[in-house]
Amino acid sequence: MSDIQMSMAYMVTHSFKLYPEMYQCPESMRMVRTKRPVLGTYFLVSGLFLITLYTPCFIVMVRSKCRVPAFQVMLILAVFDLLSLSVNSVITGVLDIMGASFCHYPIFIFTAGAIGKGSWMGGCVACILLAVDRCVEVNAKFKLGFLFRKKVFRVVMVLMIVYWIYSCTLTKPLLFTAEYSSWFFDPKIGKEPTLYHSIDHTINNLVVSLATTSLYIYLCYHLIYKIGYSTSMWLYRSKQQIIMQAVILCTFHAVAAYIYVYMQFVSSPPWLIIIGQLAWQWSNGCFCVAYLTLNQAIRNAVVRMIVPKKLRERFDLHIGIDEHLRNPDQQDRVTAINTISTCVKMDNLVSP
């Protein structure tokens, strides 16, 4: 059984009909619903909240004229994250509340699962690239730095987009099961689960887990032992934030990757499945939280875009050097100005 027959490409080229031998649901399964209103409400509300936080950050990135390699990776990662959050949070929440599984809405869930899987796998590549970029920032001689040279980087970006398209259209998708409030390759229609194993997804998850963990361990080691102690409070806080961010990002991605591989091959307890689903959600959602809490440039740009000028003046929120200089009360404090720049490199991701 080829992956093509079980992919979205087959569905699109066969009048939006799924391969019947593998995805034909028994009529009895269409009558059974397992509603999970509490989990569904959580995923729906938290998903909409994270998308609401992420959207202005994404708009700020799009409006920026900065196109350094790391920034371009951040931009495309934002697209992958928003697509993933739509699937692993919003759609998951709605289906949980309705108690609907694959057999209730096969075409819709099949399509959503293909997009969710493709966005996860594309995002994994982007996360590895960002980890490499951070290592290059702290060590200019890092051997993988050549990936960010102009001509090479163009090829890397094209390959990442091709990989995302391949993952969405030419591989087995994830399918939602309300009983576990999670996504599986097996539609749970009574067939042998091994028929639905996704080798490409397994390889992707193992690679991203090992790669990001290794790169962030290298980054933390270099910051702690190579750069050493500094009397600069700014540098000390920056190092702390970089290490904290590395631990958070690495933890969410590694947990989600390993659990989803484990779920595919071994019957898992419900609590572990929920942890895997939460890890997948926050592996995408943690970036917008990092941008708004640790990235002063993006945070200021978002405030300036959303909060009207009159309100900023009323509450003394002078975002940007131009607004500081126009305010007579602030001219004697120019040295304390928090300048704004939406041209963000990854080293600014955790600027204090």
From TrEMBL:
Pfam families: 7TM_GPCR_Srt (PF10321). The chain crosses the membrane at residues 39-61, 73-95, 107-132, 152-175, 203-221, 242-265, 271-294. This is Uncharacterized protein. InterPro entries: 7TM_GPCR_serpentine_rcpt_Srt (IPR019425). Keywords: Membrane, Transmembrane, Transmembrane helix.
